[in-house]
Amino acid sequence: MATAQTPGRHGPLTGVRVVELAGIGPGPFAAMLLADLGADVVRVDRPGGAGLGIDPARDVTNRNKRSVVLDLKSPEGRAGVLDLAARADVLIEGYRPGVAERLGVGPEDCHARNPRLVYGRMTGWGQDGPLAPRAGHDIAYIAVTGALGMIGAPDRPPAVPANLLGDYAGGSLYLVVGVLAALHHARASGAGQVVDAAIVDGAAHLGAMIHGMLAARAWQDRRGVNLLDGGCPYYGTYETADGRYMAVGALERRFYDEFAALLGLPSDLAGAHADLARWDELREAVAARFKSRTRDEWTAVFEDSDACVAPVLSLREAPHHPHLAARGTFTDHGGITQPAPAPRFSATPTAVRTGPALPGAHAAEVARDWDLPAGA
After folding, report:
1. How do residues 298-353 score in pLDDT, each as one tens digit?
2. Strand order through the sheet with 309-311
C-alpha cells in the first residue's frame, strides 16, 4: 500500500491517487493541478514521449508527479494500466473517443477492476456529436462557441488569446471540477462514473453572463462595441510613450472619477463616460494622455489609487511585480520560474514539491508505494 503521509502536509488532496495517461495540453495541466493540490499523480508515459517537442525537464505541467513508461499497445502495458487503475481514485485520459476502448483501458475495462474509479475524459469536441472523432485545437473550439468572436478590435480579425481560454479555462479547469465532484459522489455512494469534459462545453459555459446580457439587450453580438470587450474607452488598453501599454478597468463611477483626475482629462469631458455618442472622443483623449508618459511613469501615478489601472507586463516581467512578489504568486524551483500552486489553503498548504517528472523515472517507487504485482 501507499507509504504513510502526514495529513495536510502536501495539500488537501493528500491520499488521493490519480493515473494520468500521457497526452498534451489540457489533460496534463489538469493532472498538474490535482498534483499541486496534493494528489499522488502517476503519469503513464508512452515509449518515445508524447511529442510535445520541449525538454521534459522543463515541462512544468509535469511537476509534482511521478512517471512510469508503459506501451499501451502491448498486453503488458495494458495490464500495467489496469493494475494502476485498480488502485487509483481517478484516471485521466485525453484520447479521441474510442481510442482508450480499443487499447483495452476504457471505462468498462477500468470499472471492471475498480467500480469506484472516477474516469475523466478530456477532449475538445466531447465524446459524442458529429465532430467528436475529428482533430482540433484550442482555436477551433473557442471559435465555434462564440468566445473567439468576442475578442479583438471590430475592424480587425479576432485576437487569439494563446491557448488559455479553450485548453485551460474551458478544458482543464472543468475537468478538475468534474473529477472532484465525481470523487465526492464516489466516496459517498461507492460508485465511480465517467466525466466527459469537452472544451467546447466549458468554453461555452464561461460565456454564461454574456449570454444573459445578450438576452437582456445589454450586449451587442459583435466585438469591440460593448462594456467589457474594449468598446468602452475606460475598459481597455492604451499605448504609452515608450511603446508599452497600460490596462484600464475603471467601470464604476467612483473609480472612473479617480482615473480621470489622475490621468488629467480635461473638464469638458466630465460627462463623456456616460454618453455613448462621445465614447470615440473620450477614447482619443485618453489615448493622447497615455502617450504623453512612459508605462513606468503612469504606473507610479496610479499605483496607490483605486482607479483600476495596471501596467501590461510580459511573462518575464510579471514575477517581479511588487504585489505578485510579495504574495509569492511565482516561485523558482529547479532553476525554472513558474506560477506557484493556486488557490491557497489555510490548513493544507500546497507547494511545488518536485520538478517535472522525467519519463519512467519513478517505476520502482510507484510499484512499491502502489503495491503493484511483481514484474508490473
Report:
1. 999 999 999 999 999 999 999 999 999 999 999 999 999 999 999 999 999 999 99
2. 235-239, 245-249, 309-311
Is residue 221 flagged as an active site residue? no
Buried b (16+ CB within 10 A) or exposed e, 200-231: bbbbbebbeebeebeeeeebeeebbebeebbb
126: closest CA among 101, 94, 148? 94
pLDDT tens per residue across span 156-175:
999 999 999 999 999 999 99
Helix orientation angle between 26-36 and 173-189, rounded to the nearest 10 degrees: 60
Question: CB of 117 within 8 A of CB of 85?
Answer: yes
- Select which of 137, 184, 205, 211 is catalytic: 137
* Set 138, 167, 201, 229: catalytic member: 167
- pTM for this entry: 0.94
Q: Pick left, alpha or beta for residue 352 (phi over 0 → left; psi -120 to 50 → alpha; otherwise beta).
A: beta
296 labelled catalytic = no
Q: Which three cell numbers stand for residue 343?
A: 488557490
Question: Do residues 44 and 23 lie in contact, with contact meaning Cβ atoms separated by under 8 Å?
Answer: no
